[in-house]
Amino acid sequence: MHALLDLKDVPQLADLPNPPGQLFFIGKPHKQLFQNCVSIVGSRQITEYGKRVIELLVPKLVFEKKVIISGFMRGVDQYAHRACVENGGKTIAVLGWGIDTILSPEDKKLADDIVSHGGILLSEWQTQRSTLWTFPVRNRIVAALAQEVYIIEAGLKSGSLITANWAIKLKRKLFAVPGSVTSRVSEGTNMLIANGLAKMWCGIQQPTQKSSDDPILHALEQEPLTINQLSRNLNKPIAELGASLSLLLLSGQLVERDGVYYKK
Amino acid sequence: MLTKIRSTANIGLTTIPIDVEVDVATAGFPGFTIVGLASKAVEEARERVKTAIINSGFDFPPKKITVNLAPADIPKDGAAYDLPIAVGILIASEQLPDEIVFDLKKQFFYGELSLDGTLRPTRGVLLLALFAKNITGSQLFVPEASANEASVINIPVYPIPTLHRLIQHFVKTKPIDTLSYLPIKDALDSEPPEFDLSEIAGQEQAKRAIIIAASGGHNMLMFGPPGTGKTMLARALPGILPPLTEQEALEVTRIYSISGLLPPGASLVTKRPFRAPHHGVSTVGLIGGGSNPMPGEVSLAHLGVLFLDEMPEFPRSALESLRQPMEDGTVEIVRVAGHVRYPASFTLLSAINPCPCGYLGHPKRTCTCSERQIARYRHRISGPILDRIDLHVSVSVIAVDKLSQSLKNNPNAITSCQAKKMVMDAREVQTKRFANTKIYTNSQMKNKDVKRFCILTPESENILKLASETYNFSARSYIRMIKVARTIADLDHKKDILPIHVAEALQYKQMV
Fold first, then answer.
1. What is the CATH code of the structural domain delimited by B197-416?
2. ipTM associated with this complex
3. How far is A222 from chain B (nearest CA, A)?
């Protein structure tokens, strides 16, 4: 089942004052897996907003061939793993318990999917049970492995803030997603931004702002439309438009829900 | 005296010659018996024939009359034996002048009598004519109102208005002219379609899907809230299908003739059928049946369109019974009286609402259904049925103001006439490709045919593989996508299936 990881593959862990003595894994790691990593962490109570943020962020990271690291907790962590797998990306789950622990059926399914898509499960323990102290300890690895750390949603007392602190200490790039000031689960992330500890992540508009030359994407940037509306707006034959939309959907630049197309 | 008159019985679409033997005996008590597995309708011929003979100015002999319908072991139904029995009695009771010469072997009598002696429209006349065509020198004597059905067959057909006129014809006081032969080609005029595609506002994608469905013979499902034009789109489909060929027109008319659905005076079904049974239809109503099995809606839609509106509202058993006809193009009905096979090769067009109330996802109205109701509603159509539907298309709500705005040089504007041309071209490509096979359209290809006839470029294959990963296609959906892409390529006059064809086909993947 599990195996020991060669610590030479993960030199970035040496930045830690207390690097793990050993790392167990399940899956098939290769050196490149650890070279271009991004951590995505957040609260266990995920909101619809949090989900949308992940649906927006993860495909972009996967497209940039980044490996997504998270803590395999319910909520933001697992949603990030799931989104990564669904987008065909590789993801690393750093467990807050021993590698040999038996998982619940849902967790097992996600774990299997992670492994079958070329990702791994990682832990510094073999049989350790999950207790209060194991999660914060695990967080230092989540922060150390990555070059960038994204905090999606976090309350003021969230464990994600521990990861954020590690990221600051280890001089990793830290991003926090701003949220509503009335939302409990955004208090932590807003605080990070307000105190200047993290950069504010405002979605992916800025880099793609150079506005696409594709008229379809351009039209959908303004408002979501059905294929029929698009054909009227662009004055394009429906057959050709349908083919283009299918390809844009497959390349992940659009999403479709109930016949309406949205720009990602 | 004993006499024998020729008539026919129809069992399903098979016609069997029947000898109506009439004996008017001089000995014995007066009476009137019909033997030979006669149904209630045939039994009752006694009263009709008796009254009709008297009201036509002849005597009904007060003698022992026995009628035998031979062969005796085939069940006989319907009122078509009234005329042969009446003629038989008149001959056997020696009421007709001696100089009349009958050629009873070649003359077929067929028709229902009314009490005053007039002949009523009778079903199945076309089948009789098709049968009689194979007997040289045959002549038909059939009710005037139904005679036109036989006019497309080149044999002498005498349209008979009344029993009295028939006798006048034989005694040559007032001969009846035979119907003039109407070649099928002339009967098949191209009538304008009932609904023109150009009348339908918006729904560009659904219109395109209808054209693809018509070209490849694909079954299609439309998904969308009420009032978005699903029914209009369905009604436009027959108008863009290629016109019936002579052979096809005969095949369809045969079914309508036996069902008695041809209006009096009509000769041939010239339009492709469009059947839209209500969702209260029973299984028997849909696939056919009855003690003397009659064609159901699937057979009445043969070579045309079967439209099931609000598909999930149909009884599940009725929907499941569609599987065999959808697969084989025929339906086999087994009853005590024997089994009958009717053709049932139709294009299935179905419409479903997104939820029981119909307004799920509607931009302005709210849906009042619970999650469970919605799930139950969608589960009513089984996987095997959905699997046989190649095209799934969403029909969206259109705002009224958008409808009125007309586009200049709209690239999607299309009339039924133009669409029909596209469809016929695509069908021609298919006919050429499937020469020497039993397939006519792309939808009929089996897996091995798909391998043989559908060549995907490597890039197309890659797109399809990627899509099947992304959308979790089953093996069957994968094949279905290839078939649809094949039709799109045919519409585009391309030999190989190119990436754009596959990409467009993906627009019509299953949604629910």
1. 3.40.50.300
2. 0.77
3. 18
To test the contact with chain A by mutation, choose from B197, B205, B233 the residue with the greatest count of A C-beta atoms within 10 A, namely B205
The answer on pLDDT for B487 being more than 70 is yes
Q: In this complex, is the C-beta atom of B409 within 8 Å of any C-beta atom belonging to chain A?
A: yes
CB contact under 8 A, B500 and A243: yes
CA of B315 to nearest chain A CA: how many angstroms apart? 27
Asked whether the beta carbons of residue A250 and residue B407 sit closer than 8 angstroms, the reply is no
User: Which residues does chain A have within 8 Å of residue B503's beta carbon, measured at their own beta carbons?
Assistant: 242-244, 246-247, 250
Specify whether A191 is located in the same domain as A215: no
Same domain, A250 and A189: no
What tokens appear for A19 in the block?
């690097």
Residue of B204, B211, B395 to mutate, interface with A, max A Cβ within 10 Å:
B204
CA distance B194 to B238: 8
DSSP state of B442: G
Domain B445-512 has CATH 1.10.10: no
CATH number of the domain that A112 lies in? 3.40.50.450
Distances (CA, A) of B222 to A258, B238, B390, B393, B472: 13, 16, 11, 5, 21
Tell me which chain A residue has its CA closest to the CA of residue B360.
A258
Please indicate, yes or no, whether residues A182 and A90 belong to a single structural domain of this protein.
Answer: yes
Q: Output the domain CATH number for residue A226.
A: 1.10.10
- Number of domains observed in the structure of chain A: 2
Domain coordinates in residue numbering, chain B: 2-182, 197-416, 445-512
Asked if the C-beta of B490 comes within 8 angstroms of chain A's C-beta atoms, the answer is: no
Query: So what's the pLDDT on residue A204?
Result: 63
The phi-psi region of residue B452 (left if phi > 0; otherwise alpha if psi is between -120 and 50; otherwise beta) is: alpha
- Candidates B504, B509, B511, partner chain A, best to mutate (most A CBs within 10 A): B504
Is the model's pLDDT at A118 over the cut of 50? yes
CB-CB contact of B134 with B144 (8 Å): no
Residues 6+ away with beta carbon under 8 Å from B246: B184, B185, B188
Helix (H, G, I), strand (E, B) or coil at A177: coil
* Same domain membership, residue A221 and residue A172: no
Phi, psi (5° rounding) for residue B403? Answer: -65, -40
- Asked if B205's CB is within 8 angstroms of A227's CB, the reply is yes
For domain B2-182, is the CATH number 3.30.230.10? yes
Q: At what angle do helices B204-216 and B475-491 cross, to 10 degrees?
A: 90
Q: pLDDT digits over B88-134, tens only?
A: 999 999 888 876 777 888 899 999 999 999 999 999 999 999 999 99
pLDDT for the residue numbered B247: 87
Contact (Cβ atoms closer than 8 angstroms) between residue B493 and residue B429: yes
Of the residues A158, A181, A205, the one at which a domain ends: A205
For residue A256, the model assigns a pLDDT of 86
CA gap A59, B220 in Å, rounded: 33
Is the pTM of the predicted complex or chain greater than 0.80?
no
CB contact under 8 A, B208 and A226: no
What percent of chain A clears pLDDT 90, i.e. is strictly above it? 53
Q: Are B287 and B331 in contact (CB under 8 A)?
A: yes
- Asked if A135 and A255 sit in the same domain, the reply is no
Residue A210's pLDDT band (cuts 50, 70, 90): very low
> Which chain B residues contact residue A226 at CB under 8 A?
394, 396
Range of the domain at A167: 3-205
Alpha-helix runs per DSSP H in chain A: 48-63, 76-86, 105-116, 134-145, 160-169, 187-194, 205-208, 215-222, 227-234, 238-250
B207 CB near a chain A CB, below 8 Å? yes
CA distance B223 to B499: 26
Same domain, A130 and A224: no
CB of B422 within 8 Å of a chain A CB? The answer is no
